[in-house]
Fold each of these.
Amino acid sequence: MQTLFRLGAAAALSILAACQGPAVPHSLASTSDENCLKCHRDTGSAPATTHPKKKGCIDCHKAP
Ligand code: HEC
Ligand code: HEC
């Protein structure tokens, strides 16, 4: 029982922590996901994101 409770608490914490990505360190022509992915896919010019399927990049990555 207690083990189950700990697992639940850890899952809730990791969901909260997942909402704080590093801030965007550059200026942006557009804040749309499509624009971000032009550069941040593995074929782009920027460091590739590990999570190209997540929606709402700037919900987690504060725009400058
Ligand atoms: C024109 C290409 C381009 C676009 C569009 C772009 N980026 Fe970037 N991004 C880069 C480059 C190049 C770097 C690495 C160099 C730097 O720090 O400026 C970078 C760095 C980053 C980093 C830091 C990565 C790290 O390892 O710390 C984040 C986070 C990021 N971008 C998020 C975004 C988001 C979110 C968007 C869309 C709102 C976006 N970028 C759009 C080119 C782009
Ligand atoms: C739910 C929150 C969330 C969303 C949405 C999100 N990110 Fe992230 N991102 C993170 C976190 C947290 C990190 C820190 C590294 C990690 O844990 O993967 C990160 C790291 C990054 C990095 C640094 C390289 C890497 O993958 O570690 C880039 C680039 C990036 N994100 C781009 C994007 C782009 C582009 C989008 C939209 C398609 C996006 N992120 C959507 C939370 C998010």
Amino acid sequence: MAKLAGSAGVPVLGDKSLDFYRDPVGFCQQKIDKHRGRVFQCRVLNRATVFVCSVRAMRELLCEKSNTFQKDPTDLMTNMYGDTVVTTNGEEAYLLRLSLTTLFTGSCLKSSNDYITSVCERHLKDLSLSGRPPCLYSAFKRLGTELVLGLFLNVRAEEQPQLFQEIVQLCTQHWHGLISAPVNVKVPLWSSGFSNALDARDRLMDIIKDKLKNDTQGFVGSLGSLPLPDSSSASQHLLLFISALIPKALASLLTSFTLALSGNEQKHRRRAAEDPDYLRRVLLEVQRLWPPFIGGRRIADEDSTLAGFHVPKDYGVIYISHSVHRDPEVFEQPDHFLPERWSGRNAGQEHFLCSFGNGPRSCIGTKLTDVFLKEACMYLLKNCDWCLDPPSQDLEYKWLPVSRPAHPPAISFTRLDAAGCDGSDTS
Ligand code: HEM
């Protein structure tokens, strides 16, 4: 059993949280280079923490040893969202997942199809007609927000604009409390952002409880009739589902998809429009290179190992999706956008990704996300063409709270029934 590279540092003074939050990807790359390995330790959130940046260690953490590496019930998520499946362990988590999964699969998911199509059409038509949207990510986030509030809460922007706006504002306020806390590692509960967030949470909970009591239709109706552990469970999960997190993650993937296909190669866009399997490979490559969330966190319940390194009990463990997805052991030319890898060497290796987690605690919204993404991407591919304008721009990414370009890229859209981007296919 090998000793972990790096140092867990002394409490408080040895903490590297700020360095990590400033530039998580640069931070990990620097450590990988320094230690010449993809598993190392340092101190974050004032806890000795193992960083997992290899596919092998990620699979052990999230799959084979998922009973040893547990969710942290004292995680900030619990403060902000209450007791939800996200921070629960053992049998309780298993049963909750079993119940909730029925809402995101099968006939429940099917019944969302028409709404997903109509929201995508309305938003993306406006986007493509606007020609040059000032911020693509913000436009996609509005689409994601309408999707989430309409689907999960039966609140539709065009039917109840005031209530819709109020909820959007409360979700933003709630979210700002969540992200203000990690920076104030020492006194998270004292920051003013945090107390504003708790006020927003209370008001959101009132709206949610009212919906659960009075709406029998749709997702809220189905959630209300699920067997859940206690009376507050349905409302706490709804708070989680309508949080700003999900629209941000959806917008992140849609932005990365648009950028990945924004070169002057019209033939790639045409191929993706006509060949669903090629679109699937493009989307796999998008989530590999630009996973919306930086990763996830666990706590070691007992002494164990990851990729042969000793991990003591009570150590934190963080998997970093960006680095796992660029592990050269598994992905040749890891920094290149190569959709073909998913029909070549990496065919059938989707289980080496962790954009949606992995193993028994992976995301329960992947099917819904897949349906939504395919609908949105297909609409764009079939109805418009787009390109970076000017063609050379700074496309550097930032990674927190979700991955997206650090500076909004300038993109030109044209309807396919009008002239092409520059009128010709130069590929
Ligand atoms: C682009 C969209 C999404 C991304 C990138 C995403 C990503 C993730 C990731 C990485 C995890 C695992 C976290 C960990 O290992 O600690 C996760 C878990 C989870 N996701 Fe998603 N998610 C997305 C959409 C959704 C949607 C639409 C829902 C449902 C409304 C959802 C509900 C959940 C839940 C409840 C968990 C916790 C599962 C558990 O702890 O057992 N997600 N998601």
Amino acid sequence: MSIKTPEQSRTIMTDLVLPSETNPLNNLFGGELLARMDRAASIAARRHSRRIVVTASVNHVEFNRAVPVGSVVTVEAKVSRAFRSSMEIYLDVWIEDRESGQKTKANEAIYTFVAVDETGRPVEVPELTPETDLEKERYNGALRRKQLSLVLAGKMKPAEATELKALFV
Ligand SMILES: CC(C)(COP(=O)(O)OP(=O)(O)OC[C@H]1O[C@@H](n2cnc3c(N)ncnc32)[C@H](O)[C@@H]1OP(=O)(O)O)[C@@H](O)C(=O)NCCC(=O)NCCS
């Protein structure tokens, strides 16, 4: 299986915030942003693996900045690390100023997707080699985040989480 780069999975989705997608403060509803990020992450995971992919876990979401109605929102997704069948997808969310066109980072999230066959069984995905400094930083932290997610899901014993233990010794 050929080795791929994060750039090969890069997915950019730009869309407006409509009134029906907002909360009582007229800002984008959190669940709507989660759905947009899930769609972008799913496309990135599919581009990396060229397989059917399913969301296994949402590892981290930061709603740092409210996104007002009428905003132009861009969600950028890239695979940050590939394991055996799972892929970590990093998402950056930007809003664009109407007059200047300047983009401001609004939110960020990390999802895990798993590639599966037609019966839903996990299948292997290509390896990933990071290229830029940011891609390398995200790649290096991904195993720690995978172990944390598995421990929180009760799928790994804390004693087996070597990367997490290494943080404290
Ligand atoms: C995701 C799914 C395929 C995992 O199946 P499984 O039987 O747990 O399979 P495995 O234990 O072999 O795990 C497969 C991979 O997922 C990873 N994984 C499973 N749960 C995880 C979690 N909570 N966090 C991070 N990674 C996880 C495993 O570590 C493994 O990774 P690896 O192969 O790269 O080492 C299965 O749980 C599933 O189909 N879930 C439903 C998915 C879905 O419908 N999503 C949409 C929600 S509406």
